[in-house]
Amino acid sequence: MIELTGDHLTPEQVIQVAKAGEPVRIAASARERMLASRAVVERLASGEDPVYAVNTGVGLLADVRVSSGDLETLQRNVVRSHAAGVGAPMPAAAVRAMMLIRANVLCKGYSGIRPVVADRLCDLLNHGVTPVVPARGSVGASGDLAPLAHMALVLIGEGEAFHGSQRVPGAEALRRAAVEPLTLGSKEGISLLNGTQAMLAYGTLAVADCELLADHADMICAMSLDGLRGTPRAFDPRIHSIRPHPGQRKSAENLARWLEGSEIRESHLSCRRVQDAYSLRCAPQVHGAVRDVASEARRVFTIELNSVTDNPLVIEGEIFSGGNFHGQPLAFALDSLCTALAALAGISERRIDRLVNPALNEELPPFLANHPGLESGFMMIQVTAAALVAELRVLATPASPGSITTSGNKEDFVSMGMTSALKLEQAVDLTRSVLAIELLTAARALDLLAPLRSSPAIEARRGQLRGVCPPWSGDQPFSEQITNAAKLLM
Which residue range forms the structural domain that includes residue 246? Predict the structure, then answer.
């Protein structure tokens, strides 16, 4: 059971809830804070002064006063009107992460909502109700309005949701889960919509994937280096201690460790090769830089998990309008991760080419075929990797500078953070496939060096691969093998 306080949510807990179904509840201390800020909203809602989104319209309509009798209708209308997303639904794990993070933000007690609103989000998580949320339609300020609105629709018994594996109307999903729909009070609709939780959900899940891919890349590179009879001398810790970027040092340590005890290395200690190509020799510098980008993104995302990102805010008995919903910090981090993954896949593709290309490698048969010419061997698998890298270069083009004005020019500079997040989701999958291709290619190269064996650690991983991808014996379709290898990297 994960208890939400508003202050201590971690990326690991987000993954536990989003993917493993860990139950959640609201801490007693958070309830007290929410009740205190709610009392302020109720006092102001009944007063004569206009308060943004409490008794006024939203966006460019902020100057339009709403009568006290229409305050509940205003909040319901805000949710309905902002549910304007399009396209395929967000993955269930991303929606669950978004709900969890939104509940945690509300627990901080600056949003002016009743505790029951946060409780209902927890109820959906705990009863397996996942709103259907179209992935596209957010410009990342005033936060992820459209995705969060589709989430909020289900809370009021509208929209659509998955209950288990079934897609049903929101009201039916609540009925099956024995959860009462909410009637939103003043400010509660806008408090559910303003925030960065959709892009943050994608980012929090993706940064863990990026960190894992960097680990896999080190292992696969070590396998490729042995397949090419390269030297691990470039991974000597003395080199990296005098340029002590944390990620670089970590990748160098990993590469050296993976190659310990390799028979292949021992077989060519006296060879005349002075140094390897950059894709091998500079792997710690490239892989390590990816690690450092991921580390910085994790820092940004962890701060955001426990930050107040809606508007207006209830602070010390007053209402403040600000811009904490603006997704620029996240957009920059998300774009940086896309760029880093393009580099990680790019250097992997260069190693794949070096393994198969007879112009770059004289010790292995052309394209790793048994009968070059009669067989194409691994020729086309490298072409696939090149195609994926080309697509990754497009995805590496940043979305964050691409502001476009919305809401009658009231929202005149937006973050485009959700676009960055959607690019990153694709980049993770494409990078994993490129690394899977290198894994298959490097494993084939090691097959051709038998009876020499690589290190015990690499041979163990090669054994895992052979459990789902038998050794290559002749030309055959590669697609299923790439898919199966990629699953090993998840």
Answer: 202-488
Among 195, 211, 230, which residue terminates a domain?
195
CB contact at 8 A, 424 and 202: yes
Do 146 and 247 lie in a common domain?
Answer: no
Q: Per-residue pLDDT for the chain (490 aa), expressed as one digit of tens each?
A: 999 999 999 999 999 999 999 999 999 999 999 999 999 998 888 777 777 777 776 666 667 777 777 778 888 999 999 999 999 999 999 999 999 999 999 999 999 999 999 999 999 999 999 999 999 999 999 899 999 999 999 999 999 999 989 999 999 999 999 999 999 998 999 999 999 999 999 999 999 999 999 999 999 999 999 999 999 999 999 999 999 999 999 999 999 999 999 999 888 776 667 789 999 999 999 999 999 999 999 999 999 999 999 999 999 988 898 999 999 999 999 999 999 999 999 999 999 999 999 999 988 999 999 999 999 999 999 999 999 999 999 999 999 999 999 988 888 999 999 999 999 999 999 999 999 999 999 999 999 999 999 999 999 999 999 999 999 999 999 999 999 999 999 9
Residues annotated catalytic, as ranges: 52
Residue whose C-alpha is closest to residue 379's, from 267, 275, 486, 478: 478
Q: Are residues 354 and 227 in the same domain?
A: yes
DSSP 8-state class, residue 362: S
Task: Find the CATH number of the domain harbouring 338.
Answer: 1.20.200.10
Query: Phi/psi at 59 (nearest 5 deg)?
Result: 65, -135
C-beta separation of 431 from 220 below 8 A: no
